[in-house]
Amino acid sequence: MAWILLLLAGLLEIGWAIGLKYTEGFTRPLPSLVTGLSMVASVGLLGLALRSLPVGTAYAVWTGIGTVGTALLGIALFGEPATAARLACIGLIVLGILGLKLVA
């Protein structure tokens, strides 16, 4: 169950990271509210996952999910570069997440 909570926390981290772009410096009320709620929910779920997962593993996986998802959505939504080197590095992060899941 802790891994499911951690996955959901990571997905919400993607949501708030992308949401920051749409808040335009927190000048847009609805995107700002959704982003803020996503932040709180993400950290809350991380906290619940930490009841049974090691903090180093959980935090690394949480930020890894957020990093990979945000980078891929940045490419898809905002036209950020999708160079081979960048995609390879994103792939390495995914491998690190999988490795932590296997050894935790």
Describe the protein in words.
It is a single chain. This protein is mostly helical and about 100 residues long. The protein has one domain. The chain has helices at about 1-25, 30-50, 55-80, 85-104. Helix 1 packs antiparallel against helix 2 (about 30-50), helix 1 crosses helix 3 (about 55-80) and helix 3 (about 55-80) packs antiparallel against helix 4 (about 85-104). It is flat, with a radius of gyration of 14 Å. The mean pLDDT is about 95.
| Biggest beta sheet attributes | none
Q: Return residue spans where pLDDT drops below 50 for at least 5 consecutive residues.
A: none
Q: Helix- and strand-based class? A: mainly alpha
What fraction, in percent, of the residue positions are helical? over 70%
**Mean pLDDT reading:** 97
What percentage of amino acids are in beta strands?
Answer: under 5%
What separation lies between the terminal Cα atoms?
Answer: 14 Å
Please tally the β strands and state the result.
0
Which word captures the global form? Answer: flat
InterPro entries: EmrE-like, Small_drug/metabolite_transptr, Small_multidrug_res
Organism: Methylobacterium nonmethylotrophicum
Family: Belongs to the drug/metabolite transporter (DMT) superfamily. Small multidrug resistance (SMR) (TC 2.A.7.1) family. Gdx/SugE subfamily.
Subcellular location: Cell membrane
